[in-house]
Structure formats: structure tokens, C-alpha cells
Amino acid sequence: MRSLVVFLLVSASQQVLATSTLITNINGYSLNAQRELVRFVALQFNQDVVVAVFGTGDSLPRGITQVIDGGGKTLLPGLIDSHGHILYYGLNLLQVDLRNTHSEQDAVQRVRRFRTENPEPPWIQGFGWNQENWPETRYPSAASLDQHFDSTPIWLTRIDGHAGWANSVALGFAGIDADTADPIGGHIRRDADGNPTGILVDKAMDLVTRHIPETSGRELKAAIRVATLELARLGLTSVHDAGIGLYGGGMVPAAVYKELAEAGALAIRINGMIHHLSPELQDLLSAGPYVSDNQLLKINSVKIFADGALGSSGAALIDDYSDSPGKRGFLLETRQQLAHTIAEVMNAGFQTNTHAIGDLANRTVLDIYQQLIANSDTRHLRHRIEHASFVSAEDLPRFAKLGVIASIQPMFVPSDDDMVMARLGQRRATHTYAWRKLLDTGAIISAGSDFPVEVPNPFFGIHAAVNRTDMDNQPPGGWFPDQKLSVEEAFAAYTLDAAYAGHQEGQLGTLEPGKKADFILIDRDIFTVPTTDIGGTRVLQTWVGGRSTHQPEASPN
């Protein structure tokens, strides 16, 4: 009997060796349970699971049929973006790209070129304008679009997704004129005579987007697929998708994501947050958390909005905006409505991920969380605040105290530094994107990009977190450099802590036996190069579940 058991064990071991893959000659890094860096020189995985990691001096297994030479390159656990918008990113790859425009007229010219190249769509849509980067820093107007488009409706979304720019044709479709009242939670910008200028903020955007023709199911699937392939190319193996189930004025059934996941058509993993305005919310809450059989898709959280953005002056502040005396932004729902939605989500056993930018919004959400986490006994669900951008000094320690995760976006620093100073002034700016202060209180932070608001390259994000600069390393020394993170802390925020924020630390975030074989090969050692060089990191290979989703054009050697 004993010989039979030994034979079966040996046979099983030989089978694992025969079906395993071994990557050797690598400069590997991961984190251990104490959050310390560990190094290794080889990685063995069987199908989609890590079998072993090998340090210097360890004997490598024999009999493995597939051995890959890593060419001495650096290997890391797959990086996780804990806040992005996959569908929007995919669709924006197919729309007018207005990021990095230099002026209002530059943006208009891009729209004109797009129309020449794409004459068919009945509406022209675009994304990414930011008036703060233009010489006069003023909002654009419908008039500049009307000069070139007198019959085609135009809808262009601001970089933060909280304001839109429409031409007069689009405003006409929506029936917006001088007599149109501001919707609750939104604002129609007007000229001195009270006429709409073409800029709609937050919930006022719905007045236009509800008239845009719905994208077909086939187009939606294609956009999601294209987006995941591009994200894999950048070194992301998982993304927390911040608001599935709703797109613009229409609906994207969660079934679209499920079909793609179950068909294995996703290049990366998606951890989906249900948009709290999705018509499917009640059905999805009743059905309970979902995980696809191949674990490419997980849905166990809900995205809720408390306020807007600083760039559009919609973030809810305790005191007036420095550049707009008398204005303090606004909450998108009443406190009672917000508390009702959060309670509903918590009581259904779902993680609650609430968008909060301004200090009033953050305080309001923390107050609601404090009461409802106790009432629902759901601290274990690891509720989150998305962005946690501007948090008052007295509220910073409450994240750790309540077990609330701060989901941050490092690239907001180089994008928003000048705007933050204008909106909030020097004193309040010291509590904006104050991640060192959060970490020092014991809070857990997970990192992401909020793409397509920012580019989804995670090495840009690590660079920004560590240097507090843009990719040209400006401003010198960094913006409020006392808030810099170490490379190890930023790495943890994109790996282990991001996995923890998605209830996936048992599978993702580190490379160790039993976890998923999600990893990347990169062209430099981010832990030894000058920190100012991190943003230039190039991804050579991306593997998700032991399957290559991005390969280099040439060998990593």
C-alpha cells in the first residue's frame, strides 16, 4: 500500500513538472507577509498558478519541458490599477483625443480633423480637454464649435469626466436654453445674459448624454476588448473598473462583461464596481457577489458619487473656493439620499466605494461610514473612498480608525498641482493628495489612475508617487515633497494593497505558491535606478494566469 502511495505521489510530481513552465535568469521582486521586498531568480508555474519561486543558490527543478530565459530582466507581480474605466477607455480610443491640447482652438481643430477622417457618425464625441492647461484657463464655449459645425451635434467630455462641452446643435437636442433650470447636483454655465455657454457640469451633463444614440452591444464588447489589450501592454494585469452597468445616458448590462469573461476574451482581470445609478443595481445586489469560473471577472462592490471634481469646481468644500468666493461646490445627493444608498449597499453585503474629492464630501462620507459600518457590522468588507483628494487634518486619521481604504491616483499630482493651488490656496493644498500623512496614520492606500482621466501607465503613477513630479521631473524637488512615497510603498499600492482593496490578496498582488501567475517583465530595475527614471520603464512581457497577453517585438535579451 505504501509503495502505491509513493508511486502516485511521484507520478503526480512528474505530471506537474511536465506541465509546468519555468522562467529562469530573472531579477525577480515580490513582497512577503511583512511587506518586505523579497528577491528571486526563477519562477515556476503550472497552468495559472505559481508553484514555486527560487532564490540565488536554490536548486532548480529538473524535467520541466517549457523553460523560458528571462534575459536577466526584472520580473514583478502584475500591477493592479484600483480605479479605472475600461469601457470609457476603449470607447475613447475610438473618439476625438483632446488630451494635451494647447488651446480651445487647438481642440476645435482636432474635432475638425476627426470629422474629416470619420464622416459617418451622427454625433461627434471626444474626451480629455482641460482648460487649466490653456493660456487663458477659461472654459471653452459652444460658439467656437458652432463656427465649423452648424448641423452636427458635438459632445466633448472634460478630462475629469465631470463636465462636458457641447455645441449649439447638441444643446438644441437637449432643449437647453436660458430658461432651463439647473438640475439638482448639476450646473449649466451661463454668460452675462443668462444664456448657456455650452459647458454642463456633473448631473447637467445628463441633459445632453441621454440624447446620444446608444452604442451597440457589439461595439461595447469590441471597446472593452481593445481596452484590456492596451492595458496589458502597459503592464496591468488587473483593473478595478469604477462603475459598470451604465454608460453615458445608456445602460451596459453586467452581462456584457460576464460574456467576455466567460469566453476568455479579456486580456486582464476586471474587478467591477456596479454604478449606483445602474438600472440593474437591485437585481445585482439581490444576486450577491459574482466571480467568473476563470476568475477573470469579479463583481462585489458598488461605486457611489458624493461630489464632483476640483477642476470643474464641483468638489464639495467646507470653505469657499479660493478663486471663486461664495462658491463651495456641492454634494451630488442630499446627505440623507447618500446615506440611504450606502446603507442599501452595505446591508446587501457589497463593498461600498464612494467618490469624494472635497473636504466636505470626504467628511460627509466618513461620517456616514462611521455610523453605518457599525450598524451593518461590515467593517470586514473594506469600504473605500475613491480619490480622497482633499481631506482635512482632523479627518485623516479616520480612514485607519474605520478600516476605510483610500483609493488614490498619483498622476493627479502633476496634472492638478497648479489647479489645486488656484482652487484651494497654499494652506489647504498641503492636505491635498497627502498620501504620506495618510500612511503615517496607519491607513491602507491602493493606487490607480482613473483612466482615461489620466493615462493608465502604472509606471507613470509610481514615478508621480515617489517624485511628486511630472514625467519631465517638474517641479524641481517635487510638489509638497514631504508627501513622497518610497518606491517600495508605491509598489505595494499597485500590487498587494490594491489586491487587498479588491478582496483578492489571497490570489493576486504577490508571487508566491498558490497565487495566480500574473506577472510582468520590464526593462529596468525600478528599485535601483534613479527614481527620476522610473516613469520611462518599458514593459517587455505581460502574463495573466500563466498566459501571455503581451509579448515584445523582440527578445528581452
What would you say this structure looks like, in words?
This protein is 31% helix and 23% strand. The chain has 557 residues and is of the alpha/beta class. The strands form four sheets. Strands 8, 15, 16, 17, 18, 19, 20, 21 and 22 form a nine-stranded mixed beta sheet that branches. Helix 2 crosses helix 7 and helix 10 (335-347) packs across helix 11 (359-376). The protein starts with a helix and ends in a 7-residue tail after the last strand. The model is unreliable at 1-14 (pLDDT under 50).
Structural class per helix/strand content? alpha/beta
Note the beta-strand portion: 15-25%
| Shape, principal axes of CA atoms | globular
* Integer average pLDDT: 93
Range of helix content: 25-40%
CATH class of the domain at 86-209: Alpha Beta
Query: In this structure, how is the largest beta sheet organized?
Result: 9 strands, mixed
Poorly predicted runs are 1-14
Radius of gyration: 24 Å
Distance between the termini: 50 Å
Could you tell me the number of beta strands? 25
In the CATH scheme, what's the topology name of the domain at 86-209?
Diaminopimelate Epimerase, Chain A, domain 1
Supply the number of helical segments.
17
CATH architecture of the domain at 86-209: Roll
